[in-house]
Amino acid sequence: MRKTGHKRWFMLSLVTLGTILCYLTRNTISAAAPTLQSDLHITTQQYSYIIATFSACYTIAQPIAGYLLDTLGTKVGYTIFGLMWGVFCIGASFATGWKGLAMFRGLGGFAESAMIPAGLKSVTEWFPDTERSVAVGYFNVGSSIGAVIAPPLVAWAIYIRDWRLAFILVGIFSVLWAAGWYFTYNRPSKSKSLSREEYLYITDGQPEKPKVEKVRIGRLLKQRKFWGIALPRFLAEPAWGTFNAWIPLFMVHTYGFNLKDIAMFAWIPMLFADFGCIIGGYLPGMFQKIFGVNIVVSRKLVVTMGAVLMILPGMVGLFGSPMVAIALLCVGGFAHQSLSGALITLSSDMFDSNEVATANGFTGMAAWTASTMFALVVGALADTVGFSPLFAVLSVFDVIGAIVLWVLLKSPEEPKLVTQEES
Q: Residue 85's closest CA among 104, 62, 102?
């Protein structure tokens, strides 16, 4: 086996830590939701407005963040966004009602929108094609780790003081991480401590692609391969938004969970989401060996597997046991993060490194548009029809998304991938 250095994995650990803090910021409010409803007299529908405000700002900012990261570079761009989401998280601790929370979570959504494009761009810079899906799986695992930490952290903060303490601590940690990112991260070509052997291993594994001097957004949005990724992400993201924002309230409203129960059980589906991130990162390589398919087809197979597994959490309304519900949500967490990692990585397979963050920003915009709309649907219907029918709808979305992926996205070997507009 060829011996190489480990600097790329160190850089990936920085990306993963940023993802953990970003999702810890995001999930702190969902873990605190039952207490917020009581302390600030927030209704379920008003809570949905807070979530939708975050999602809407995240949606609008996705292409902006991607473009700024491609323009400013990963080092400076991600530092700025990391500082912002830390400050806005601290600001949320001063809110006195749902409108104040909505404002600060909206600002946080704008800042946090850089997380996936920045992570993907850094992986594109630091990893050869053969390791890219594994790397994306590891940095994407941070999203679930943040969600795992949030319930016990919030419960602890409420126990020793109040929910505001959790927002302050997470915000401070995020600001410190952003400073560390700025003084540590560099592209391989600018890293003084990177060995020549590892540098050649990274660059030799990144095949030459046509370089574009400037990202052309109009050209990007006309490409079939863009919509082949954007539409499946549009259909898949409402599930993850629901898992992140609504599981604690779902368990409270449906099964009568209290704060102790939330701290003990609400994080478990996110632990399985961690497994989905990691195992999902290795699955494309396994499918390539087993079925003899190319990398793009192997990622499609991962998305398909995840979509089929997502049928199980859609059946949560058929069971009255909270433990069965947790188990089905665990399957959902694993399934979604497996397919999500594959969808995100497809952008790095299909687009040039100079435009990958922009492309991912726009596909993320499509994803979060759907998440925003579905959050409002949940807020409007959860108290009347319940959560169970909504979980069933999410399963249908994922299956349709997998079908759309196979229909629209062609592998590089297939001539239909490159159209006259793309050439």
A: 104
